[in-house]
Amino acid sequence: MSAPLRGIVAYPITPFTEAGRVDERLLAKLVDDMLAAGVHALAPLGSTGVLPYLSDDEREAVAETVVKRVGGRVPTLVGVSSLTTERTVHHARHAEKLGASAVMIIPMSYWKLTDAEIVAHFDAVARAIAIPIALYNNPATGGLDLGPDTIARLLQIPNVTMVKESTGDVNRMHRLVQLCGEDVAFYNGSNPLALAALVAGARGWCTAAPHVIPRLNIELYDAVTRGDLAGARRLFYRQLPFLQFIVAHGLPRAISAALELMGTRVGPLRAPLQPLARERVEELRTILVDLQVIPGP
Amino acid sequence: MSAPLRGIVAYPITPFTEAGRVDERLLAKLVDDMLAAGVHALAPLGSTGVLPYLSDDEREAVAETVVKRVGGRVPTLVGVSSLTTERTVHHARHAEKLGASAVMIIPMSYWKLTDAEIVAHFDAVARAIAIPIALYNNPATGGLDLGPDTIARLLQIPNVTMVKESTGDVNRMHRLVQLCGEDVAFYNGSNPLALAALVAGARGWCTAAPHVIPRLNIELYDAVTRGDLAGARRLFYRQLPFLQFIVAHGLPRAISAALELMGTRVGPLRAPLQPLARERVEELRTILVDLQVIPGP
Amino acid sequence: MSAPLRGIVAYPITPFTEAGRVDERLLAKLVDDMLAAGVHALAPLGSTGVLPYLSDDEREAVAETVVKRVGGRVPTLVGVSSLTTERTVHHARHAEKLGASAVMIIPMSYWKLTDAEIVAHFDAVARAIAIPIALYNNPATGGLDLGPDTIARLLQIPNVTMVKESTGDVNRMHRLVQLCGEDVAFYNGSNPLALAALVAGARGWCTAAPHVIPRLNIELYDAVTRGDLAGARRLFYRQLPFLQFIVAHGLPRAISAALELMGTRVGPLRAPLQPLARERVEELRTILVDLQVIPGP
Amino acid sequence: MSAPLRGIVAYPITPFTEAGRVDERLLAKLVDDMLAAGVHALAPLGSTGVLPYLSDDEREAVAETVVKRVGGRVPTLVGVSSLTTERTVHHARHAEKLGASAVMIIPMSYWKLTDAEIVAHFDAVARAIAIPIALYNNPATGGLDLGPDTIARLLQIPNVTMVKESTGDVNRMHRLVQLCGEDVAFYNGSNPLALAALVAGARGWCTAAPHVIPRLNIELYDAVTRGDLAGARRLFYRQLPFLQFIVAHGLPRAISAALELMGTRVGPLRAPLQPLARERVEELRTILVDLQVIPGP
Predict the structure, then answer these.
(1) Which H or E run includes C161?
(2) Do the chains D and B touch each other, judged by at least 3 C-beta pairs below 8 angstroms?
(3) Portion 66-105 of B in contact with C at CB < 8 A
(4) Does the CB of B241 have a partner CB in chain A at under 8 Å?
(5) Domain spans of chain C?
(6) Do the Cβ atoms of D62 and D26 come closer than 8 Å?
(7) Which spans of this chain does the record mark as coiled coil (chains A, B, C, D) (predicted)?
(8) Burial (CB count <10 Å: 0-12, 13-18, 19+), residue D38
(9) Does A230 contact chain B (CB < 8 Å)?
């Protein structure tokens, strides 16, 4: 990436056909929609994109679809995480070859990894590719919690240049700034922390919300950027119920349900994931009506 | 209180003579110092003031000293918490008689209290006095964690009108605003959360830091109030190491050590509390030198 | 104590008159009942005895009532914990003067204590009295969690000779045995862990259950002592629902309700503690009927 | 399985050649060793066998090697867990075809699964095969914690007939017995809980320790079975340091290191997993010398 990444980093879901195959055509359309709305970057194969539930072939198809469709209009961050180092390197090389701007890696765990193992894992990927690596910390999904000290150490690996922090604790971000300097490129991955994180100095906000409320997401980022605190607070509380909802019920379930309510059929989730329960869909409908995303009854 | 309380609510320590008795004369001087620096309210008998370690007589002496010394120049919030309802009512009545602007109550626990017990506890105090009650939530000291729903319920008791939230999780504050409306009078009690909380809409910041850095505390509050985000962020990161230090090592220990480094002998802590360990004092000295609170070597 | 303490250590509640004063006459009768049933020791002023909710005078009256009533028939362990070291020493001396066999101390916290502070606290009490001290670890009430290493260190203080472990984690007990040798005098304070703890080598079981099911408690202890594993397991599962219930709902609330169901009026709890909710009382009734403690409908 | 499974269920590691391929020949030998020592069942492709780090082909090769080598001498439980339902069904069918006695499934998570999703996941596998399913609960690795109520519900699915509980909390086992009756077939998966679990009624102990101390494992099981409490306690504390060590440092790392110390080269771990750190190996050596597994210096 020539310029540092800033702003709203949009995470597309991975849509499926009724037969359960990746729906590449619809994925391309969803990417178009988010780009048209003005998001600042695209990040396929995140948690939202159900990365760990896809086969290697599917992962490559999703990466290719998104990177090609974006076509360099904005940066692309491709998720390449895998339990083994060998598969992570494989996908990272594939993403680089496709022309991705950067790769994003969450150190996944079954057995808890030692710090030495985590460092060696990132080192191996860093030696295999020339594009930047964004480190993604999310104990709730990956099962490993990297403290600020470990993250600071990983940021010393030459092309590990960005951090997505998803613990939802703004104090972690404060510590990162203290340990790495105020120029540290950290991004917020916990939706309800968007305001606090941007105020604390986050360069961007990694979120699946632009599938549904891209303008509100971008306006919040813009308000903080221009120092409009009152505006930022108002925009934040306006979209907060939606952000809380999608986090509480799982991004793939919640975003898929929202897209269906908005009229786009995105297909079944991959089992064991199931669609949002009916009563939850009604709660979501109320939130979307209130946000004027869909018409009221 | 006629006007709603806003700004920096300063928490004095309780100084002791060498013989271990409350040093009322020095307490009055410490209050004068904080008032002279411009704090917006005084809150004796908080956690910083080692409330639970004092006898009933000592508590009354501290309350009287501070309320009289403030003399109405700013609001006073007097801590009146006790394990039993009867003692809490007793101290609340005493504070009211002294002319305190409001009382602050943390529901202390040995046995975890049920919601019904907590409500009845506050109800009993509310019926006994006519001045406002600030509810204080701090599971790390009080041993009970009141969720936003419970807090919202307690705020329906007529003169329970304020909340001090000290969990250090800004999401709790968001929930309070959502449950009670944006006019809910909540205050931040977790020092390292000062910026995030004020941005989220906190009316004030309850802190012992004005013993040491009152101007930085007030300037941070002022910067957020006038919407100066860049200034607020700079002021916040400037004072953050001090805020983290005093939280990490216990407010009475850390503030007492800071005052001693600044030249004021505040006496022994009450056992089992002991003075800050020697190597910690040196860390603190470095922080204070960096903040230009004390001269460097 | 001449002989090492072993077996069922019974914790009496503190009964109150309708006017809310300690009911010393009833307390003496409750002690008689437990002694008649065969318990191996009596421990007034525990958590069950609502120690922290009593005034100094009330504490002394309870200690005196129980120690005198027991009259040396079995050992007495008197709870003397207080937030301050000075008050703890005061109550420990009083207990010794009364003729208590030992004192029990939970390091209570408002401010989390450092290890050095905890050691100094126990040291101060140990220097002040000549009778043994039992260390009580229960983070759920006291707010401090002493790890096995800290406990092992405290057991090096000359007359700190016993440990009551109430975390409910049998692994803590394994560690104690490993650190201090198999002769370490540890006692179980988590009712549902009674079987696992005795099997792991606990010398006794500290429990309020003998107010209600003393024979079952004693028989379980005896079964483990004589190596009757099948019998112990049967006895354990038989009484487990009662043990789980009293822990889940708070010992003072649950034991008081059980005694009332059994026909003994024990008076109001001290506010903010309230009587067990009505629907819980019905659950408890079912358990007691099943245990044949009270007749069925 | 004709007879209900009882006793020591041994978990083999998956050894690798120096080139990083599964070493089927050595795996067969390790199985032989454990069978010769008298273990009661074999469970390939558990956490110890680094199941999630293997490709589908490797998983099938491991299952085939072990099931064939055991040749019906004892029951085999084959791990078939996968993030997706489709892959889990695939591996379950393969195991059944091979002649496995049962399959073992841990509900793995990236996105936390709802109870409905977990039930549907097990339902799908149960409909696909005719052999019994053992449910495996281990939040520390799988990332999902199934409470006793959820487990009881899953045990109502026709051929989900066994539970391996690895939370290390004996209270979970008590609850299972209460919810499902004393005939519930539960197995302990937390090594340091072996004694408490067997005493609580566990039918067996799932462990990788028989690679190193099979006789001690079997003798502990036998002692509890014949009601020899004193013997069981002695045997338990004897092997506890080893059990604690292998849990603290990760079973594949620790067991591989132990086998190497015993003279069997088991090859590299699969990255990102790395061999036990050198200083840890020395700790382990001391433990093995003390257990007379290897000769002292």
Answers:
(1) strand C160-165
(2) no
(3) 83-86
(4) yes
(5) 7-228
(6) no
(7) none
(8) middle
(9) yes
Q: Is D224 on the interface with C (CB under 8 A)?
A: yes
Q: Distance of alpha carbon C101 from its chain centroid, rounded?
A: 15
- CA–CA gap between residue D157 and residue B51 (Å, rounded): 57
C112 in reach of chain B (CB within 8 A): yes
Contact A83 D121 (CB under 8 A): no
- CATH top-level class for C7-228? alpha beta
Count of A-D CB contacts under 8 Å: 95
Most C CBs within 10 Å: which of D165, D167, D172, D199, as the mutation test of the C interface? Answer: D199
| A282 CB neighbour count, 10 Å cutoff | 11
Q: Can you spell out the DSSP letters for C25-90?
A: HHHHHHHHHHHHHT-SEE--SSTTTTGGGS-HHHHHHHHHHHHHHHTTSS-BEEE---SSHHHHHH
Best probe of the A interface among D106, D111, D144, by most A CBs < 10 A, is D111
Q: Which helix (H) or strand (E) holds B51?
A: none
Does D164 participate in catalysis according to the annotation?
A: yes
ipTM at complex level = 0.96
- Write down the H helix ranges in chain B: 24-37, 56-70, 85-98, 115-128, 139-142, 148-154, 170-180, 194-200, 214-225, 229-249, 251-261, 278-290
Residue C135 · residue C156 · CB < 8 Å: no
| Binary contact (C83, B271; C-beta < 8 A) | no
> How many residues make up chain A in this entry?
297
Residue A1 pLDDT > 60, yes or no? no
Contact (CB<8Å) A117/D50? no
Q: Do A237 and B182 touch (CB under 8 A)?
A: yes
State whether residue B176 sits within 8 Å of chain A by CB.
no
Task: Please answer yes or no on whether C193 and D199 come within 8 Å at the CB atom.
Answer: no
Query: Is B170 an 8 Å CB contact of chain A?
Result: yes
Q: What is the pLDDT of residues B239-280, one digit of tens each?
A: 999 999 999 999 999 999 999 999 999 999 999 999 999 999
Per-residue pLDDT of chain C (297 residues; tens, 9 = 90+): 556 799 999 999 999 999 999 999 999 999 999 999 999 999 999 999 999 999 999 999 999 999 999 999 999 999 999 999 999 999 999 999 999 999 999 998 899 999 999 999 999 999 999 999 999 999 999 999 999 999 999 999 999 999 999 999 999 999 999 999 999 999 999 999 999 999 999 999 999 999 999 999 999 999 999 999 999 999 999 999 999 999 999 999 999 999 999 999 999 999 999 999 999 999 999 999 999 999 988
**Rg of chain C's alpha carbons, rounded to an integer?**
18
B120: its two tokens:
């009845």
Distance CA B145, CA C272 (A): 16
Nearest to D86 among A84, A118, A271 (CB): A271
Task: Flag whether residue B19 sits within 8 Å of chain C, measured between CB atoms.
Answer: no
Burial class (CB in 10 A: 0-12, 13-18, 19+), C264: middle
Size of the C and D interface in Cβ pairs below 8 Å: 58
pTM over 0.90: yes
User: Residue D110 is encoded by which pair of tokens?
Assistant: 């990236």
Choosing from A164, A187, A221, A237, the catalytic residue is A164
Sheet architecture: strand order including C133-137: C41-42, C7-10, C204-207, C186-188, C160-165, C133-137, C102-105, C77-79
Structure tokens at C26: 């009833």
CB pair distance less than 8 Å for A274 and D114: yes
Whether CATH 3.20.20.70 fits A7-226:
yes
CB contact under 8 A, D192 and C174: yes
Return the closest-CA partner of residue C151 out of C205, C187, C201, C124.
Answer: C187
| Residue corresponding to tokens 């910690």 | B280
> Which string of b and e fits C89-122 if b means at least 16 CB within 10 Å?
bbbbebbbebebbbbbbbbbbbbebbeebbbebb
